[in-house]
Design a protein that fits this description.
6 helices; alpha/beta; 8 strands
């Protein structure tokens, strides 16, 4: 499969990523997708590698006047990453504190919604591949890698179809390996590198995780 500067959709991008990660097949990797967009992608990668799928819950917070522009992110424990230039965009310490509380509430609700009947799958001692649909500022991926590293995986891999080169530099020290199909000097929004970048809804996430959970139970039976 080939692409130029655009992927057809998340599924095609995930299929290409899985090809690049093929050497992890048969080693029971745990694929952690960042909701919501990356969850269908995580399923493609986990299925291709005979691995398990779960979510890593982190939430970005945006600039005061542009919620889509990530200035930081928080994980479920409350650990927060702030981008180096956050203050320049109006994110003072009070704004950050308020956003952190707001996003922690969102994460609590998501955990209850997404995996109501089971705890998160434990990454300890395993190969863990954290997947997202792209890295713009890097805030979300940095929080996701930090949250996962704290739980002591044997190997931590960051895998994305597209990323800004300068953000990849921030991400690299946090992972043992970074796989990116399309590293770019100038990036803009992640969505412009996909012909179809439809919104992934909570219901889609729940469907994918329920299917993955059912498959896992059958394997264990």
């Amino acid at each position: 499969m080939h692409f130029h500067d655009q992927f057809e959709d998340r599924i095609q991008a995930a299929t290409l990523l899985a090809e690049r990660l093929g050497h992890y097949r048969g080693r029971n990797p745990l694929v952690l997708a960042i909701p919501r967009g990356a969850v269908p992608m995580g399923k493609v990668v986990a299925d291709a590698l005979d691995g398990e799928l779960d979510v890593v819950l982190v939430h970005k917070f945006g600039a005061p006047y542009d919620p889509e522009f990530a200035l930081g992110a928080v994980d479920e424990t409350g650990w927060t990453y702030i981008t180096p230039d956050a203050q320049r965009y109006g994110a003072n310490s009070r704004y950050v504190a308020e956003e952190k509380q707001r996003q922690l509430e969102v994460l609590k609700k998501r955990r209850a919604q997404y995996t109501p009947c089971r705890p998160p799958i434990d990454p300890k001692g395993r190969i863990v591949i954290v997947v997202d649909d792209g890295i713009a500022t890097g805030a979300t991926m940095i929080a996701a890698l930090h949250a996962t590293r704290a739980r002591e995986p044997a190997e931590l891999v960051c895998a994305v179809p597209v990323a800004a080169l300068d953000s990849l530099e921030y991400v690299k020290p946090l992972a043992d390996k970074v796989v990116c199909l399309l590293p770019l000097t100038l990036m803009g929004s992640v969505g412009r590198y996909y012909r179809n970048f439809r919104q992934v809804e909570d219901e889609d996430v729940i469907d994918v995780l329920t299917q993955a959970g059912a498959g896992r139970r059958n394997d264990l039976a």
